[in-house]
Write a structure and sequence with these properties.
The complex is a heterodimer of chains A (97) and B (249).
Chain A lengths: L5 E11 L6 H9 L15 E9 L2 H16 L5 E9 L10
Antiparallel strand pairs in A: 1-2, 1-3
Chain B lengths: L3 E6 L6 H10 L3 E6 L10 E4 L13 H4 L2 H11 L4 E4 L1 H8 L6 E3 L7 E9 L16 E7 L3 E3 L2 H9 L3 E5 L24 E5 L5 E4 L17 H17 L9
Parallel strand pairs in B: 1-2, 1-3, 3-4, 4-11
Antiparallel strand pairs in B: 5-8, 6-7, 6-9, 9-10, 10-11
The chains are: A alpha+beta (97), B alpha/beta (249).
């Protein structure tokens, strides 16, 4: 049996793919003038999801997060994502090997 | 016997009553299908109505996609069963990969609720055969995320394969709408696409609301031909226990 369980906190950053019009980004950009700020452009708005995963090891935890990110948290047609490890990952715990 | 058509109800659906009314006007027997049931109760067709399923959290339609009823709908669709998604129901079907493309935030950023016009691209499909002719059909839109998007290659493919079902048009002339600057295109949909079909031709979705334009007292009955086509196709398929009335090319 693979023990112990690892507990890893991840963040998934989802953002509109390049070339996809991002109306939210456009709205934010449009408001900058009201703040008296210039020199800011190419605003893109995405979302960040943080979650905790329990699994037998790092690799299994990562596989769960990748599946979640590609099947639920993002729509691959219009969005890209990256995954950050926030805490809990360690070669000390359950690295497959 | 009257043909039985399922109406899927998610938490947050709000056009289900309109869908039920439209099916009755079209002569069908509506059967409500609750989101957490896994079977379709033997219906001959499925209508996924509008609303804000599961609050539209994350992305419109995505949470609904994973509900038990949608597994049943996906199996039904794969077996050739007729499925029609309207507004949020269209979003659900794209998220479920039963239809191509995605619905983005309206390009004008605003929720749009007003009457528009669409015209069918084809009259030989299970969703349009009762329309009889190509003309502008007046009906409402009511959505914040209805801009149809697919990459250029996919758009070309959809056009080539006859999967574009409806486009936004000028309500008077019937001319296909332009881009987001054209008021006839309410949400900035690419190539003014308002509705599409799957490759097999048995699943369709559109953003406008034909189900709320089925009686003159509602302001328009131009939507009835779409609902009636769908009902007749489901009926014909059930009677012949064969494939949908007309498939895509």
């Amino acid at each position: 049996m693979k023990l112990p369980l690892v507990e890893i906190r991840y963040a998934i950053n989802v953002r509109p793919k390049p070339g996809i019009l991002d109306p939210q980004g456009r709205a934010v950009e449009g408001s900058l003038g009201h703040l008296g700020i210039d020199g800011v452009s190419e605003v893109r708005v995405g979302r960040r999801i943080e979650l905790m995963v329990e699994a037998v090891d790092d690799r299994a935890a990562r596989a769960i997060v990748e599946r979640l990110a590609s099947e639920l948290l993002s729509n691959p047609l219009i969005e890209a994502f990256d995954i950050e490890v926030l805490e809990g990952s360690s070669s000390l715990v359950g690295t497959p090997g | 016997m009257t043909v039985r058509i399922g109406v899927v109800i998610f938490p947050g659906s709000n056009r289900d009553i309109d869908a039920i009314n439209a099916l009755e006007v079209a002569g069908a027997e509506p059967v409500t299908l609750w989101h957490d049931q896994a079977t379709l109760d033997g219906v001959a067709g499925v209508l996924v109505p509008g609303g804000f399923a599961y609050g539209d959290y994350l992305r419109a339609g995505v949470i609904a996609r994973f509900s038990p009823i949608m597994r049943g709908v996906a199996e039904f669709a794969t077996a050739g069963g007729p499925v029609l998604g309207i507004c949020n129901g269209f979003q659900v079907l794209t998220e479920a990969h039963l239809l191509p493309g995605a619905l983005l935030r309206n390009r004008g950023l605003r929720f749009v609720s007003r009457e528009i016009a669409i015209a069918p691209e084809r009259l030989d499909t299970p969703f349009t055969h009762a329309l009889g002719e190509r003309r502008p059909l007046r009906m409402p839109v009511a959505h914040g995320e209805g801009a149809f998007y697919a990459d250029e290659a996919t758009l070309d493919e959809l056009e080539r394969d006859g999967q574009v079902l409806f486009r936004y048009v000028d309500p008077t002339t019937g001319a296909v709408a332009g881009g987001e600057e054209d008021r006839s295109n309410p949400n900035g949909s690419l190539r003014a696409i308002a509705g599409v079909m799957n490759a097999a031709g048995n699943v369709a979705g559109l953003m406008p609301h034909p189900e709320t334009a089925v009686e003159a007292v509602l302001g328009s009955d131009d939507g009835l031909g779409i609902i009636a086509s769908f009902v007749a196709s489901a009926d014909a398929r059930e009677r012949s226990a064969g494939p949908a009335l007309v498939g895509a090319r």
